Amino acid sequence: MLKNKRVIYRSLSIPVSLLFVYLVWVLSIPNPMMILIIPVVFFSFSDGYISGTMSGMVAVVYSLYFFMILTNDPMGIQKATTIVLAVTAVIIMTGKLKSKNNKHLSEIALLKNNFMYILNGMDVQLMVTDFDTDQILFANEKRNREYGLDHNPVGLPCWQVYNSYERRCDFCMKPKLNDEHKAPIVWEYRNEMSGRWYRNSESTIEWTNGKIAHLQQTVDITEIVRAKERAEDANTAKSAFLANMSHEVRTPMNAILGITEIELQNDSLPASTEESLSRIHESGNLLLNIINDILDISKIEAGMLEIIPAEYDIPSLVNDAVQVNRFRYESKPIRFDLRIDEATPLNLLGDELRLKQILNNTLSNAFKYTEKGNVTLSVSAEATGSDDDDDVILILQVSDTGQGMTAEDVSKLFDEYTRFNIDANRAIAGTGLGMSITKRILDLMGGEIFVESELGKGSVFTIRIPHKRVGGIVCGPELAEVIRNYRFHSTAMTKKSRMLREHMPYGRVLVVDDIELNIYVAKGMLLPYGLHVDTVNSGLAVIEKIKEGNVYDVIFMDHLMPQINGIEATKMLREMGYTNCIIALTANALVGQAEMFLKNGFDGYLSKPIDSRELNTILNKFIRDGKSAERFLSAHKEQSRKTEMSDVGNISSNIVGVSELQEFFIIDAENAVSVLERILEKPDRFNDKDIETCETTVHGMKSALLSIGESELSGFAAQLEQAAKEKNHILLAKEIPKFIDALGTLIE
C-alpha cells in the first residue's frame, strides 16, 4: 500500500507543479517563487527522502521552464533558479536528518516492542511501582493474568488493584528497602485464596527522570514446595521404617548378644563351645554394625548427624580402635605397626565417638583386604598456622600391603554401597557404606581424606582433621616409645577379658521390662558386678516399688511397655520427687534419642542390644564413683576372696540353659494370653486404650517368639500388630482368639 502511495505522489508531481505555476501567472501573485517551494516540500516529505526530493526537483524544473514561457522574463528565471537551488539544498539536508531520525525512532520502537515481548513472555510476575505513591508504572501480562485483570492497571495504586485494600499492604517491603537502600529482599508466602506458594524478590531501580521505583519479581514455587513436602514425607516415612527396623532387629539381637556374652564369662567352657559362642557373638556384632551403618547414612542424608566435641586423649582413641580390629582379624598373618609422633598433643577437643568410627572403618578396610603382610597406623599433629596456637590438625595415616585399587576404583571409593572386585572378595563381609560414611563425617568435621593406591601393592589413607589442643601436654618420647614397641600377639581372647568389671556389692539396681527374656539378659550382664538386682515387668510396678520406699542407684527403664510406657513412668517418678538415676533401655537407635530422653527426665539411655562397655561406663559413673572410698575398698577385699571369674562362670552356666529360656518364654506367653483374654471379655472392647495395649502385647510376643525359633507364629503376631496400628477392630476380633489358641498350644 505504501508503495502504491509513492507511485501516485510521483505521477502527480509534474501536473500539480504546472497547475501551481499557471495559477501564479493568472492571479499575478507577488513573489511567485516562494509558492513553487510548496510542491517541492510537499512531495519531498510525503514521498521519502531520495525519491521525494527527486520528484520535487523534476517538478520544479518543468515549472521554471513553463513560467519562463509565460512571463518571458530571463532575469526572473535566473532568480527563480537560485532560489530553487537553495531551497532544494535545504530540503535535501532536512530530509536526510528526518530520515536518520525516523530510522532511529523505528529502531527504538522495534527494541521496545521486542523488550515488551520478552517481559510479557517471561514466566515471572513483574511489577514496577512509584516508590512514594505506590502507583503502578508497569505490570507484565503474566501478573495481570494471575490476578484476572482485563485492563491496564498503570497509574493505579498496587494495593488497590491487586488486593482491594484501602491503603498500603501490611506486608509491603518498601519500608525495609528504604532502610537497606538497594539490597534485595527475598521472601516467600502462601496465597490463602489460591493455596499456591510464591517467592518474591524486591529491590529498587532507577526509573525515567531519575525517579526511584520499586521492582517486584514474583515466581510461583508451588511445585517446588510440594516436591519438598513429598521428599520430607518420604524421608519421614523412611525414618519411621528405620526406627521400626532398628527396634525389630535389636530386640532379638539383645538376647543373642547378651546370652552369648554371659556364656563367654564362664572360664570352664570347652574350647569348641567357646569358639562357637565367639563366632555367634562376632556375627551378631557384624549384623549390628551393618544396621548402624544404614542408620548413620539415614542420619547424614537427613542432615541430623551431629558432631559433639568433647575432650579425649589420643592413647585411648588409638587403643580402642586397634583392639577392636585386632580381635576381628587376629587369625590373619599380618604384622601390625603402630607409630605415634612424640609431639602429638595428649589431649584434644573433638568428637571421639565419630573419630573412632572413622579410624575403625579405615583400619577395618586395611585388615579386610590384606591377606598377609603389613598394616601400619601412624598418628601425628601439626599446627594450622592460625593466630590461635591451640588450633592443630590431627593426622591419621593407615597404610597396608593388601590388594590395592585402580585409579577408577579410587574415584568411586566414597560412593554408597560400592565394593570392588566382588568375585574375589565375595567372602569378605560388608555393605560398601563404611568409606562413604567416613567421608561424610569428615566433611561435617571440616576434615579431609587422601588416598594413594596401586593395584596389587597396597594403599595409603591419610586423614586430616582440625582440632583444638587441650592443655600443653604432648605424648612425649616415653609414651611414644611404649606405643611404638607395643605388639599385638595372636592369642585367643574372649569378650570377658577385654574389660575389667568392678565388684559393686553395695549397689542397688532395678530392671524394668515387660519382656522376661530382656530381664533375663540384663540380669546376666549385671551378675559379674555383684549388685543387688530387683526386677519388675511394668511401669505401674516400678511406681509401686518406689512408693514402698525402695531406693536404687540406677533404674534401667524399658522405653516401650503396655499401659504405662517408660517415659510416662519416669515422669510420674520425677513428680513424686524421685531424683536418683534413671536410664532408658531402647531398641530405637535413631538420632535425637539422647535429647528426647534427657528432656523427659532420664539421665541417659542404653541401646539394645546392650553394649557391655556402655553398661560398664554407666555403672561406674552412677554407682562406683558415687560411693565412699571405704566401701569401694571393702568391695575389692570381698572380691579378692573369691576366684576371679570362675564362680561367675559357674553361676552363669547354671542360669543359662535352654530349659530356663523356655521358662521365661512361658511366663511372657502366659502374660500375653491373660492380657488379650481380658480385652476380649470386655463388652466395650477395642477402645483406643485396648488397641494400644493389644499392640504392645503382640509386639512383645513377636520378638519373644522369634527368639525361640517360632518364626511363623512371630509373623502372625506382626500381622496383629499392624492391624492394631491401623485400628482394624474386625481383624483383631477375628484373629486374636486364634493367636491365643496358638500360644496356648505352644505353652503346653
Can you describe this structure in just a few lines?
This protein is α/β, with parallel strands linked by helices. Helices cover 55% and strands 15% of the residues. It folds into five domains: 2-118, no CATH class; 123-220, PAS domain (Beta-Lactamase, 2-Layer Sandwich); 230-301; 310-495, 2-Layer Sandwich (Heat Shock Protein 90); 659-747.
Explain what you see:
The protein has five domains: 2-118, no CATH class; 123-220, PAS domain (Beta-Lactamase); 230-301; 310-495, 2-Layer Sandwich (Heat Shock Protein 90), CATH 3.30.565; 659-747. With 748 residues, the protein is α/β, with parallel strands linked by helices. A hairpin with a 5-residue loop joins strand 4 (197-206) and strand 5. The chain is extended and about 150 Å long. The model is unreliable at 487-498 and 642-659 (pLDDT under 50). The chain is built from 25 helices and 17 strands. Helices cover 55% and strands 15% of the residues. Strands 6, 7, 8, 9, 10, 11 and 12 form a seven-stranded mixed beta sheet that branches. Strands 2-1-5-4-3 form a five-stranded antiparallel beta sheet, sandwiched between helices.
